[in-house]
Amino acid sequence: MNEEYVSLPLVKNPEEHRFELKVGEYTAFIEYKERDKKIWLIHTESPEELKGKGAATAVIEKTLAYIEDNGYKLIPLCPLVAAYLKRHPDWNRIVD
Q: Domain extents for the chain?
C-alpha cells in the first residue's frame, strides 16, 4: 500500500453498502453485501483523479483487513478483488 494511504481510515458505510477510503476530496470504494458473517465484495471503484495512484489497492487491502479483524468470511465477486487475491494468496485464509 502506498505510504500516503496507510493512515487514512476505512469507513464502512452501511447506508450505501460500501467500504470507503477518502483521499482528499475523492473517495475510492468497494460495494458489498453482507449476511451471516459473510461479506460479498461486488464492485471496486476509484475516481479518475486517483487512477494509477494505488487508491483501489489501498481500499482493497484495508477492506480485507476489516473482514479478517471482524471475523467475516469473504466472497470475492469483484474482478479487481479476485485479481488482488491471485497476486496475494495469503489472503485466501479469509475466503469462504
A: 3-94
Q: State the burial class of residue 45 (Cβ atoms within 10 Å of its Cβ: 0-12, 13-18, 19+).
A: middle
Q: What average pLDDT does this structure show over 17-37?
A: 97
The number of angstroms, rounded, from the C-alpha of 94 to the middle of its chain's C-alpha atoms is: 13
Antiparallel, parallel or unpaired: β 73-76 and 18-23: unpaired
pTM of the model: 0.95
Residue with cell 487475491: 85
Architecture label for domain 3-94: 3-Layer(aba) Sandwich (3.40)
Q: Which residues contact 9 (CB under 8 A, 6 or more apart)?
A: none
End-to-end CA distance of the chain: 24
Give the pLDDT confidence of 37-91 residue by residue, as tens digits. Answer: 999 999 999 999 999 999 999 999 999 999 999 999 999 999 999 999 999 999 9
